[in-house]
Structures are given as C-alpha cells and as structure tokens.
Input
Amino acid sequence: MIIIRGGRPLSGRVEISGAKNAALPAIVASLLIPEPLVLKRVPRLLDVETQLALVEALGKQVERWGDVITIRGEAKIATAPREIVSRMRASFLCLGPLLARLGEAHVPLPGGCVIGARPVDLHLSGLERLGAKIQVDEGVVHARGKLHGGEVWLRYPSVGATEQLLLAGATIPTRVEIVNPAREPEVMDLGRLLASMGAEVEVLEDRIVIRGGGLHGTEHEVIPDRIEAGTYLLAGAITGGEVELMDVCPEHLTALIAELEGCGVAVRCGENAISVLARENWLGAEVETAPYPGFPTDLQPQLTAFLTLARGRSIIWERVFESRFGHVGELLRMGARITLQGQAIIVEGVEELRGTEVVATDIRAGAALVLAGLAARGETRVKGLEHLLRGYENVEEKLVGLGANAWLEETSAT
Ligand code: EPZ
Output
C-alpha cells in the first residue's frame, strides 16, 4: 500500500527512468543472438524482472550491474513457462524469436486483463503471413515452420504485433514489410536496437521494412519512459506545483503538453527536460486516446484524475482499450464527479477531493489514484501496490524527493 497525505504542491527535479515498454521487447531481442546483448538504463521493475526470468528459463544467462543488463547464451528451450506468460503479457513477444531460432515455439496465450480482452490475433495472423504454421490448443500457441519475407497489413497499429513482427523479421534475410505499423517511441527504439544488431530497418510513410540475417551482439541504451514522465508532469500540475523532469525526450510527450497548455498550465521544454508550472486552477479538456502520436492511453487514467479538479466539464474518450475505467469508481469515492457513457468519461470539475482508502486495479489506474491522493485533503491509502511497482521505479523516493508526504507500507493486502 502507498499512503499519501495530500494537499502539498510538489516542487523540484525528478530523474526519469528508462522506458519499461522499451526494455521489455529489448530483453526478448536477446533471444535472437547467442552473443552478449548489453542493455543500459533498464529500470528496476517487477515486469523487467519477470521478462529476465523468461529469457533465463529459455536458456539465456543474465547479469545485472546497476541499470546495465548483459544477456548472453543460446536460447535452447522452445516452451515458455505458463506462470510467466500469464503474469506479464509482454512475454508473448518471445513467440516469433523462438520460432525463428528453433523452428518451433510453444507459448501460452496471455490472458486478458482489467483494461480489456487484449487478443493477440494480429501477432498470430502476421506470423502466419510469414510462413508460420500455428495451432492453438488448450490455451497454448504451437508454432512451427520456416519464416520467409512478405508484406503484413495490420488492421490496427498494434504495438505488440508490430514488435512481434520486427523481432521475427530481424531473422529473415528477405524483406518483411509491416503496413500500418505502430509508431510508438518504444517500437522505434526496438527498430534501432535490431538495426544495431545487424538488421536493415527502414521507417516509411505507411510501413516499416525490415531485412534480417547476420545478427550480432550490441550495446543499447533504452529511451526514457514517456509514461512515467507524463505521470510526474501531471503530479506537478494536479498539486499546483513546479516539477522539472530530467533526462526525458520532450518530443515524446507532445500530446500531453498540448493538453496541459490547453488547460492553462504553463509547460517549458528544454533539450531533454520538461517543467510544469501549474496554477491554482485549470480548465477542463476534451481528449481522445489514440495510437502515437495521439494522446497515449497509458496516460488517460492520470489525465482523468487531473481533470477531476478542473474548472468546468471534461470529456475523455478511451478509444484504444474497451474497459480502461478501473480508476473511475475509486476517484468517485474520493469525491470526484464522473459519469461513463460508452467509451466516454465525462468529468465535472469539483473544488476538492477527499482522501480515503482506494484500490488500484492496474499500473496506470494506480498512478491515477496516487495523483488524486497527492491533491486530496487528508490521507489516501492506495492498495494494489504490486500494480504500481510494475511500472514505476523508486516511486516512493521520487515522490518524497518532490516534497510529497508519502510512504510505502507493506501490508498483507499490499
Ligand atoms: C502496449 O500493449 C503497452 N504494453 C501498453 O502499456 C499500452 O497501453 C499499449 O501498447 C497501447 O499503447 C507494452 O508495451 C508492454 P496493442 P499492447 O497491441 O502491445 C488490440 C502499460 O500500462 N489488439 O497496441 O498489448 C488490443 O485489444 C501497458 O504499460 C488486437 O485486437 O497494445 C487493444 O484494443 C498497458 N489484436 C489495441 O489493439 C492484437 O493482436 C491496442 O493494443 C493486438 C492488439
């Protein structure tokens, strides 16, 4: 559980960690080569530990030295452990690499989660286009065959499916063209990593083209975590404080910065820093989540929390996941005024939120409740700490460093 005594404006500087959603596919890329892959700026997060446990279970050796990870050795096992894949969906990305390296792969289907069903049909149909023979039996995907080049059109620019196809394409000596790909910075970071491992990667207007073969070891620094960055920007804004983020890529946060400025919050961008100078009150907004460079769904819960204290009405359309509303009920319990109409979250701003005990249901819902607690009167106790720790490195230290009155309390129900 994280306990917060709210009402204090945050101020100061916070160091942003490497991106969880760039580190997770990068770790899976190690399956493509026996030589050492050195990854820098890897955040210490539960999800990262899970992904490292996965590649170890598949035959790799992992060494960690601070935020530098070295992964070496031959992937020898074609079956991914069920308890790992069911715990963390991004482990499903090992399907393509294992098939490419071993000629077969057996990976359990990742379950859905509270934010949606999260099917992987685009991963499977994409690999089939490239020659994979796929059968699903009792919740396990069995893939066999030799992969070849080709053109894959994605009906939706899925981040995971694009990463799955890039990882597979990096092993195929003929061109793989992914049409209508995801363009999230984390996907681009994977493309840069695969290129530094020897693949040829081209990002074109409507597609990403990759040609593989002859892969080798490399060193790669993971990009900053734009979702962690956006969360701390909103923490500064919702508390009416002044927060500066260090070591970030402002260009990855254009959509959030535009929305904050639209609400009347001053945001200043430097070379690799962003600071927010919030005001006592801010205006509502109308926002729609979308694939990058649209407004990121991973900041929707945090923005919703911020808008509960805006002057006037806001509408936030969640267009990426069908049920990313777990934070709404808990915000209502803190005194927010929100109604749901289909995919629309309709928020009427209130004067203040009141601290109480709330439960996080996923990583970003947890972040939203922390933000609400920072602004609320009284004490907020956010249960479901395990969700928060999946996506936010040193969260207590970083919040306290910004002047928050917050601390972690390990309880049975965390
Ligand atoms: C990645 O998930 C991120 N996770 C998510 O972050 C993020 O919310 C999401 O991209 C969208 O940006 C990681 O990178 C580890 P998608 P992913 O495939 O790859 C549908 C966080 O909080 N879809 O782009 O699963 C799907 O149902 C997490 O850090 C299919 O229909 O996202 C969803 O509606 C949460 N078929 C939409 O596409 C498929 O085969 C977006 O999913 C795949 C996806």
Summary: The mean pLDDT is 96. The two ends are 5 Å apart (CA to CA).
